[in-house]
Amino acid sequence: MSCTNYSSDSKDFISNTKPHFSCPIYADASSGLEWRDRYKIIKGICEGLNYLHTQNIVHLDLKPANILMDDKMVPKITDFGVSRCFKEDQTRTIVTIVAGTPGYLAPEFTNGVITFKYDLYALGVIIMEILTGAKGYHEAGEVRTMGNL
Q1: pLDDT more than 90, % of the chain
Q2: How far apart are the first and last CA of the chain?
Q3: In angstroms, what is the C-alpha Rg of the chain?
Q4: For position 69, what pLDDT does the model report?
């Protein structure tokens, strides 16, 4: 994944096009997912997110539905529709509209300042879901735009 053609109005992302299949990354108690498999999935998500951040990409909508598993059960982060590509020396940006999914949004989303920490909060929720087999929150509704701040 890389970010090209950065301007204030346009961000183009390039990704590999190898086919992936969707697979819920959290598993309920009846799924039988072994601990070593859970570890491998968590490690893969962490590595993918680390790669994005080293490329100055903030995902902003990290959630299980946006993580696909390849044929070897290696997680792939997808859906960069609301992502931001920071300039090389940039670590945050201010927005007036916050997009994302409730339950995975960092509590500080209301301040309108986007940083890499946004993704880390969502990662923590996802890790808890993988480890416990339960959703990390009680609201099931998805909202793409939380509205004006």
Answers
A1: 28
A2: 31
A3: 15
A4: 87
Lowest mean pLDDT among 98-102, 119-123, 143-147: 143-147
- Catalytically active residues are 61
Classify burial at 147, counting beta carbons within 10 Å of its beta carbon; exposed 0-12, middle 13-18, buried 19 or more: exposed
Helix (H) or strand (E) holding 56: none
Can you give the residue ranges of every domain in the chain? 38-138
pTM score: 0.74
Residue 137, CA distances (Å) to 42, 61, 69, 101, 141 in order: 19, 15, 23, 11, 11
- pLDDT exceeds cutoff 70 at 17: no
Distance from C-alpha of 140 to C-alpha of 138, rounded to nearest angstrom: 6
| CATH topology classification for 38-138 | Transferase(Phosphotransferase); domain 1 (1.10.510)
Total number of residues shown for the chain: 149
Specify the residue for token string 């609201």. Answer: 139
Phi-psi region of 56 (alpha: psi -120 to 50; beta: other; left: phi over 0): left
